[in-house]
Design a protein that fits this description.
Number of strands of chain B: 2
Strand content of chain B: under 5%
Strand content of chain A: over 45%
Radius of gyration of chain A: 17 Å
Order of helices and strands of chain A: HHHHEEEEEEHEEEEE
Number of helices of chain A: 5
Largest interface: A-B, 18 and 16 residues
Low-confidence stretches of chain B: 189-198
Distance between the termini of chain B: 11 Å
Helix content of chain B: 55-70%
Low-confidence stretches of chain A: 8-31
Mean pLDDT of chain A: 86
Strand order of the largest sheet of chain A: 1-4-5-7-8-9-10-11
Oligomer: heterodimer
């Protein structure tokens, strides 16, 4: 399922000239610096996708997504490490293919959306780890608990008014009071996201 | 000592009877409670315990049947009428069947559920699903079957308990005493006990 998703995501990629250059080796660092070329402020677009996977003992696990979210990010062209991200997720919008699983996730067993309608991420540092890739560290707050979280963002597409990143990262859910079902269900929630930004 | 004696049940049969009885009754209460509890995290955990204890009942019930085949069982007390013997034997056979069928139906329910929640026996050992095709229809069928068998068993437990208590307190015979680790009142039965101890 993830493979199919990645294939679809790849087929949608229309690399910009800069992006294509950046993906090629042997170019000068300046020409390859697509991240810096994308400098600016962006609003996270609704056509982004937030997918997650929780593994389980002997089985497919839970594959789900969130339909409602928002946020913004700013890319600093002079110093990518000074870029920032603020992201808010509304866990009530969770989809998991089975209504009973969704109700369970919304309940006080997991997200407790009645008491904690938002999950937020605020970056604290951005570190470049490749020509098109950055590691974003920050604070994730869910169910009233905050903890460190880290995501890797890889540039997929750069346009004049938009930018798109493939963002992946893993969260240990027990740290946020969502440990129900372990060890049947993994403690690790793997996120696989496509964040599209539109220039503000 | 552990084999069934002429009048009283042996220690193995007594232990199996009361262990299964306690677990089975606990499962009836747990099953009723867990489906009504509002806290969904608690409900999830209770269901996992219910699955583990249910499988334990199943294993013990199979052992009990094997033990019955190996060790036999003491004959019915001669003081019982033919009708009493027949009704007691029927209820006991149905209860024995229930300790196999109720857990099996629960296992089938878990296996047919579209939730596909694995069973980790007491959080340690993965128990495979039964080879059933999960569907909403199959899950509803086994859910109803498991519940009906459980409620039916509860009625049987009541009848069995009422009969045992009636024999013990009203008729003051050995029907209950011989499945307890107590000496029987019947002197003939004691002879059997003494005979074994020699």
């Amino acid at each position: 399922m993830t493979g199919e998703y990645i294939r679809k995501a790849r087929s949608l990629v229309k690399p910009s000239f800069l992006g294509a250059l950046a993906l090629l080796g042997g170019l000068s660092p300046a020409a390859a610096d697509a991240l810096a070329q994308g400098a600016g402020s962006y609003r996270i677009a609704p056509n982004s996708s937030i997918r997650f996977h929780v593994g389980q003992v002997a089985g497919a696990g839970i594959n789900g997504s969130f339909g409602s979210f928002g946020g913004s990010f700013a890319i600093n062209g002079n110093d990518v490490s000074k870029s920032s991200v603020a992201f808010t997720l509304y866990p009530k919008s969770v989809r998991a293919g089975e209504p009973r699983v969704e109700d369970f996730l919304r309940s006080n067993a997991v997200f407790d959306v009645a008491e904690h309608p938002q999950i937020t991420f605020r970056s604290t540092s951005v570190r470049r780890i490749g020509p098109n890739e950055a590691a974003i560290s920050g604070v994730l707050t869910a169910r009233g608990r905050s903890g460190p979280a880290k995501f890797d963002a890889r540039l997929r597409q750069l346009g004049s008014r938009s930018i798109s990143f493939h963002v992946t990262g893993s969260i240990y859910r027990t740290a946020y009071g969502m440990g129900v079902g372990a060890p049947i269900y993994s403690n690790v929630v793997q996120f696989d996201m496509v964040l599209n930004g539109t220039r503000r | 000592m552990s084999r069934n004696r002429d009048v009283s049940f042996g220690l193995t049969a007594i232990l199996l009877h009361w262990t299964i009885a306690a677990l089975f009754l606990g499962e009836l209460v747990l099953g009723f409670w867990m489906t009504r509890v509002k806290d969904m995290a608690l409900q999830f955990e209770l269901i996992q315990w219910h699955k583990s204890f249910g499988l334990l009942v199943l294993v013990l019930a199979v052992l009990r049947i094997l033990w019955r085949i190996v060790a036999g069982r003491p004959p019915a007390l001669p003081t019982l009428s033919r009708l009493e013997r027949a009704s007691a034997a029927t209820v006991q056979a149905l209860l024995l069947a229930a300790t196999i069928l109720v857990p099996l139906a629960g296992w089938a329910l878990v296996s047919a559920s579209t939730l596909r929640i694995p069973t980790l026996l007491f959080g340690q050992v993965l128990i495979p699903h039964l080879p059933l095709i999960p569907s909403g229809h199959a899950e509803a069928f086994w859910s109803r079957g498991h519940a009906l068998l459980a409620y039916g068993s509860a009625v049987l437990v009541l009848a069995h308990t009422a009969a045992a208590l009636g024999h013990h307190f009203l008729l003051r015979d050995d029907v209950l005493r011989r499945i307890l680790p107590l000496p029987t009142r019947d002197p003939l039965a004691r002879v059997g006990d003494y005979g074994e101890q020699r």
